[in-house]
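User: I'm writing a short methods note and want a consistent example. For Permease of the major facilitator superfamily, I'll paste the sequence; you return only the structure tokens, no commentary, since I'll be parsing the reply automatically.
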Amino acid sequence: MAGIKRASRRELFGWAMFDFANSSYTTVIITVVFCIIFPRIIVGDGPEYRLGNFLWSTALSISYLVVLLTAPLFGAIMDYTGSKKKFLFGSYILTVIATAALYFVRPGDILLGIMLIVLSNVGFSLSEAFVSSFLPDLGPPEDLGKISGYAWGLGYFGGLLSTAAVIFGLNASVYTMDNFPNLRLVGPLTGLFFLIAAIPTFLWVKERTVPSSLPKNENYFTIGWKRLKKTFADIRDYRDLMILLAAFFFAYCGLSIVISFAFIYGDQVVRWSGTTQILMFVITQFTAAGGAFLFGIMQDKWKAKKTLMLTLVIWLVTVSLIYGVTEVTAFINSLVGASFKEEHIFLVIGSIAGLGLGSTQSACRAMVGLFSPDTKSGEFFGLWAFTGRFSSIFGLMSLGLLQIIFGLQEAILVCSVFFLISVVIIFFVNEERGKIAALKHSGE
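Assistant:
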């Protein structure tokens, strides 16, 4: 990674536009709109929607299992063949088509809904890893935090714009059978947004990886496995990356729950109004974007490890406050003599949590970039995706089972446990040693 020059502004913008584009999927489908449509209307097992919530977490977990099994291998093949853009394009097209096909999911079509969520989320999750593998080539190590934060911050504006178009254009905050003709257009509109907004990425981002010729009696899958085996054989040299991935595992267990269930929690536990839901979405997009930009700058000046730990502490505090929102609301009302509702305090807490939403993921991505040899970025970001998706399975299934037994409010406390474990593990990462290991294995 030594001697890498910062890419042109146009290329950086093109790369960041993929975060802008793919945020439409994760925001509209996974976090804000379709995640409520699925348990409420497609499954429809009210009033607590425990089966719908469990099936939703199961669908996401299946998709993450597919990514877990394929991402590291695909990453190794990308590095060897110099075909990052081809793999990125394939995952992008899969996401767009499967998301648009959600139009065909009607109330009661549970199996079709699960299948399309699995396919679309596999495409999205792989594309997230594939586009991230370009990061180490876009600038010197001291700039990667800013570059990653810039893209992640821009992504939240993409999420804001796409979700605003869906909610206001389709009246998609009204989850009733009468409004289903509008709600079924959520998938096609989201797919179209992703399709168009990602075009600059494929026009302006350069493929810098030099392809290697295929040896006799070999194929790309056997080459990919051999590269992975060599990486694991050298695992001691990459110990800081492994410690980071262990910390990321537990952090993302918590984050995957927040991303997939925050708006479900607001709907089912807090019982917020449609207006508060929209306000929460808009405010958190701005605070998340601001957090990604701010912490990205801090990361390059203040070290990535410290920045990541700070974002995890923010999560610890906010999840605890979310669980006790009833008591927090009563305390504030008695303190100031006001009559705030729980949804108002939940809105404030959620806005603070937004600061850690993009910054935690952006900081992890930048640290993986710092610890990646220049010829193994696809492979290492494949391992990053592997870890993230394995943790998503573990986190979502944990919540899915716990909320069946205890209810959603009590189950959300498991996030605090995950974030606390992550904070403890990150203490053991040596940032400088990780960078030295990346330089040692560059060119292999």
